[in-house]
Design brief:
The complex is a heterodimer. By secondary structure, chain A is an all-beta fold. Chain A is built from no helices and eleven strands. Classes of the chains: A mainly beta, B mainly beta.
Chain lengths: 112, 113
């Protein structure tokens, strides 16, 4: 069964304390893996798309990496404004077309 | 550049009724996709439209349907509402290929009583 699992569910960091969020997936026909950030009461905000194992992308304090079974979102020296829920999604090719599977997210809190 | 606009922002309906939600994508975007977000299930893909054609569909019952107009605006309809349909409904638009860089609206919060 196609599935996306994110861990941890919640993470509390001190400002400046680097860490990583994990997204593991079990889908066949991977077409892309996406990271989003979602603030309370708002829609998700696109961060990255990764298409193949070994690919890496960076944006400010965030860096996303992809292997054949999982992706990591590394947060370097986080600031309080990085507090949000980070969502991972996978686009997979199925017999009916394309499907999207979202993880349930990691809620990140950065304490000043 | 205006973002994705969803209307209404909040809606309360009674079980058994039907509801129509609207999504106006970013100007120039031709793909619109819809998602349901609930605390228990997270974000779940409903369907995607591109140039007025439904291109992909998630695992939702036939009570959930949608359409896209020639100006790329999209509507989603849910018939015979159930309590479990209470959720945040999000729409996302992208320029072309599905979800390459999708921009989400703020969502419509639907409460079924």
């Amino acid at each position: 069964e196609d599935q996306v699992t994110q861990s941890p569910e919640a993470l509390r960091l001190q400002e400046g304390e680097s860490s990583s969020l994990n997204c593991s997936y079990t889908v066949s026909g991977l077409r892309g893996l996406f990271w989003y950030r979602q603030d309370p009461g708002k829609g998700p905000e696109f961060l990255f798309t990764l298409y193949s194992a070994g690919e890496e992308k960076e944006k400010e304090r965030l860096k996303a990496t992809l292997t054949k079974k999982e992706s990591f979102l590394h947060i370097t020296a986080p600031k309080p404004e990085d507090s949000a829920t980070y969502l991972c999604a996978v686009q997979a090719r199925v017999h009916t077309g394309n499907q999207f599977y979202f993880g349930t997210g990691t809620s990140l809190t950065v304490i000043p | 550049k205006a973002g994705v606009t969803q209307t209404p922002r909040y809606l309360i309906k009674t079980r058994g009724q039907q509801v129509t939600l609207s999504c106006s994508p970013i100007s120039g975007h031709r793909s619109v996709s819809w998602y349901q977000q609930t605390p228990g299930q997270g974000l779940q893909f409903l369907f995607e439209y591109f140039s007025e054609t439904q291109r992909n569909k998630g695992n939702f019952p036939g009570r959930f349907s949608g359409r896209q107009f020639s100006n790329s605006r999209s509507e989603m309809n849910v018939s015979t509402l159930e309590l479990g349909d209470s959720a945040l409904y999000l729409c996302a638009s992208s320029w072309g290929a599905l979800n390459t860089e999708a921009f989400f609206g703020q969502g419509t919060r639907l409460t079924v009583v």
